[in-house]
Amino acid sequence: MELAKGTxxxxxxxxxxxxxxxxxxGAVVASRFLSAGAIRQGNYSQSFPEFxxxxxxxxxxxxxxxxxxxxxxxxxxxxxxxxxxLDPTLLGLVDVTSGARTGGVILVNTPDDPSQVRKRLEMLxxxxxxxxxxxxxxxxxxxxxxxxxxxxxxxxxxxxxxxIDDVREELRQMFLAKFDIAIVDGNIRALExxxxxxxxx
Length: 201
Known about the structure:
Layout: E1 15-22, H1 27-40, E2 44-50, E3 59-67, E4 82-85, E5 105-109, H2 114-121, E6 128-132, H3 134-142, H4 148-159, H5 164-176, H6 181-197, E7 199-200
């Protein structure tokens, strides 16, 4: 099975993503439809959450693995190729860069300049930092500060881990089962804006 063209995935190891957010922000849902998009394009994938204190607003983590071969790992992602931070208030509260691979990607939902975020995180220069104001995009597109779909679009752009077309279709199918078409279309717009508006240093 072929991987998306230009992907950062290794032929020997899965591509691994660790999501940081708060309960109710959609990190688990984001992980699921990214994973479903990977399966749609012919890869193998896992998606699962790690819950600590299971309450609205509590810090949570979710994980995604994508590979062109069966995945036999059944553990949390400790050394991610990509880290996605849905809530910038977690910076300084949670060590979001812990275990991140050299040359990997850190993607943060923030209106701040990437250089400001790098200083706050005390990141190594070898780690690529990307930012996007996903909350603003969500408010524009769905009138709610739920940034997960914009963050998935941004992640797909900066890693090419999954085809944006496959993720878009999975989002459509998943959301149509729960929401009306206006909400579905709004989330698709957020996904596409995340893909186009993400920026780096």
